[in-house]
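Lay summary. Proteins are chains of building blocks that fold into shapes, and those shapes determine what they do. In this project we predict the shape from the chain. Here is one chain we studied, written as its sequence of building blocks.
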Amino acid sequence: MILVTGASRGIGLGIASRFTSLGFDVVGLARTSVAAPFPTFEVDVTDDEQVRQVALDLRRAKTFPTVVINAAGIASMNLALMTPASKARAVVGTNLLGTMFVCQAFAPLIARAGGGSIINFSTIAVALGLSGESVYAASKAGVETYTRVLARELAGMNIRANCIAPGPIDTELLRGVSDSQIDAIVKQQILPTRFTVEDICDVAEALVDKRLSSISGEVFHIGGV
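And here is the predicted shape, written in a compact code that computers can read:
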């Protein structure tokens, strides 16, 4: 079974739908309910008690995921010295703490299943140091470091942990960002192309494949940096 956070929209919805179409059992976590071809729990990943409760429910049902994909995330375009405290708390809370809470709650279930894979999400804004994305990039840099350490700590449980770091993808996160701003970021990629949710799904699908069981603790930049 594959558990996907942020499954109500964007990359999370795309990944959950892709794996469902491939015949996997998928469970989604999302703050709001969504009409989708997979069951979802209404959960705010920033609330560790809500996250732990879902893990407890799955444990009681003897349903153990072998893959957890942390796609829940929010972004903020603010200059470093002009980022409101409330926005900073929300971004760090969702992107970094939310990822941590989900990993803490569900890694033991993956271990009970005999091992598997965790995929977290970063962004090329970390590697490129993009102006106007200081808090967003900082939260995702934390995710990258957390994932590397997690990979080491969970290796003995036969659990791999990796990051996918996309460039600009056409989702709600880009709402309000102009085409010229997006093009300026894309031009800094090794492959100056606008990639899609489907491209991200391809990478997630590959990382879940047992043929990549030797890969852990890595960050995969979509488009290259």
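What the prediction tells us: The chain has seven helices and seven strands.
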